[in-house]
């Protein structure tokens, strides 16, 4: 786990994909996309049907490592709103055990905005916790600290003639010190969008700086991707 300062809070980046907020004993996860494989199978594209198990095993491991008492997801929990009905019994049992053991809040996203079964958790469109807004999609023009998901950011760099692509967070900061962050996708079958894409940069405006962040050799690595020219 790697320390990350955000909005005057000390957070921890867990396995490069989740955030743990020690003060709130809360684990934050974005874009689980459970049952993505079964969705594609229903549309004729066969994928190994174990993505939900793998993702939930990651969740359980992150909870164990951090000692979190609360989990808040940041939307696109299932790949589609009907994904809750396709979850096979073993994965469903894993999820129900997690939601029984923890204070679990599902923030809904554009993929699962009509999610109708929460497996024991609470559904919400957005949450404010400790002065920080938690939602699925970053809102351009937001002036409060904000944590979101949706874009699945990845950092793509060339190192020693090798092309490397890794999930990352993207953090913006305004001239008055307001922090906003887009989390990497947590799910096992999630793709990614370049951290410097126009869509991500636009969602995080206004900003003075925008940086990609990820864990590297036990430390937080920061890569500048946008600076205000004014």
As residue ranges, the low-confidence spans are none
> What is the total domain count?
1
Fold-level CATH name: Purple Acid Phosphatase, chain A, domain 2
Largest sheet: 7 strands, mixed
Strand content: 35-45%
Tell me, rounded to a whole number, the average pLDDT: 90
Broad structural category: alpha/beta
How would you name the oligomeric state of the polypeptide chains in this document? single chain
Q: Strands across the major sheet, in which order?
A: 1-2-3-4-5-6-7
The helix/strand order is EEEEHHEHHEEEEEEEEEEHEE
CATH architecture descriptor: 4-Layer Sandwich
> How many individual helices?
5
Describe the structure.
This protein is an alpha/beta fold and 230 residues long. The protein has one domain: Purple Acid Phosphatase, chain A, domain 2 (4-Layer Sandwich), CATH 3.60.21. It has five helices and 17 strands. A seven-stranded mixed sheet has the order 1-2-3-4-5-6-7, with helices on one face. Strands 8-9-10-14-13-16-17 form a seven-stranded mixed sheet, with no helix packed on it. The longest helix is centred in the first third of the chain and has 16 residues.
């Amino acid at each position: 786990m790697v320390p990350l300062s955000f909005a005057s809070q000390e957070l921890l980046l867990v396995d490069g994909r989740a955030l743990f907020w020690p003060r709130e004993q809360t684990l934050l996860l974005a874009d689980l996309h459970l049952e993505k494989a079964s969705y594609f199978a229903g549309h004729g594209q066969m994928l190994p049907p174990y993505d939900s198990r793998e993702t939930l095993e990651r969740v359980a491991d992150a909870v164990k490592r951090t000692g979190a008492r609360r989990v808040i997801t940041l939307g696109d929990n299932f790949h589609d709103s009907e994904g809750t009905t396709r979850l096979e019994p073993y994965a469903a049992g894993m999820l129900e055990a997690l939601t029984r053991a923890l204070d679990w809040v599902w923030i809904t996203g554009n993929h699962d905005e009509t999610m109708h079964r929460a497996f024991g958790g609470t559904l919400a469109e957005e949450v404010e916790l400790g002065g920080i807004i938690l939602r699925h999609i970053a809102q351009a023009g937001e002036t409060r600290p904000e944590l979101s998901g949706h874009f699945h950011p990845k950092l793509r760099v060339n190192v020693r003639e090798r092309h490397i692509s890794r999930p990352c967070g993207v953090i913006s900061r305004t001239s008055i010190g307001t922090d906003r962050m887009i989390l990497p996708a947590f799910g096992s079958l999630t793709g990614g969008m370049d951290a410097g894409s126009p869509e991500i940069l636009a969602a995080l405006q206004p900003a003075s700086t925008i940086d990609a962040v990820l864990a590297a050799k036990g430390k937080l690595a920061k890569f500048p991707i946008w600076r205000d020219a004014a």
